[in-house]
Amino acid sequence: MLELEHISIDLGQFSLHDVSLTVENNQYVCLAGPTGAGKTVLLECVAGLHRPERGRISLRGEDITDLRPELRGIGYVPQDYALFPHMNVLHNITYGLVERQTPSQIVREKAESAADLLQISHLLQRDVTTLSGGERQRVALARTLVLDCKLLLLDEPLSALDSATTKELSLHLAEIHRRLNLTVLHVTHDFTEAFSLATHIAICHAGRLLQTGTLREAFTRPRSRTVASFLGISNVFPRRGQASRQCPIVSRLQGTDRYPRDGHCVCVRPDQIALHRNAPAQNGLAFEATVRDVRWMGPTFDITLDVGTPLAVTLSRQEQAALNLRAGDPIHVSIDSDAVHVLDDG
Questions:
Q1: Ordered mean pLDDT values, 10 residues apiece, the chain (346 residues)
Q2: DSSP-assigned letter for residue 280
Q3: Domain residues of the chain, as ranges?
């Protein structure tokens, strides 16, 4: 569906460096990364709002690098929604169709269908200035969907919404993707959005694309310390030097086939670490630790252990209820050696 080849552009505050990305038909790809990573600039290059200084953009096999935005057949919902304040909801939704001189009967049918899909039929005569953030986002989506674009670009569509509205709109986006067989490129700085929506993820940092692949690949096998940090993996330990000797995960892996020569650090996700009151059977890495801190996070508990260096562990409420951990408690730790991943860089 979409292919970016060696895209580079310098806009001063934001720039892209040799970015290549392929998005297949019907994929929902989250373009994720911290603020300032260049995600929006890349999206705007695809939409035609910026022309890359180097590189090529193809859509369905056609080179669209120099094509005007309105000729690309791409649906684009910017972060600020870009609704017309002097028009009501219905006129905002149908604006693109009217500009294309679409027959009035088709305009009405498409508007009603999109409004029904997004559950905003009762808002069609409302002034857009009276809408909530979630309602404005749905109107912006409806305005794009009526144009029958097969590639949908979303620039942080959930960033300005409260948690309840975010959850509701996530369900709508997932339903839209499924029912309309859309290909979606969705910019976000929150990796948790990817869990609820994306089939694939592309992680950006400082204008470069660091890793692409399925969600499982990214979250279980991050390539670098930067990617691991963005994904919330705080357990990253150097393989050499004094710090490595203080970490039992590193010291117990040395000399085994799980400890390859390449790579500067190892990492393990907090949710892949098991805690036990009694010594577990030796089915992986096992060692003793002391509980340093216990924090309730709602559905989970964040546990910090002292193992010579801090080690973060995530427990479910049921696991914490069974262990009843408190600061200062001794505890046994076990980790499946397959859960320990070697990073390409430090």
A1: 96 91 95 91 95 96 94 91 94 94 94 94 95 92 93 91 87 90 93 88 95 90 89 84 65 60 78 91 82 95 93 96 96 88 74
A2: P
A3: 2-222, 228-343
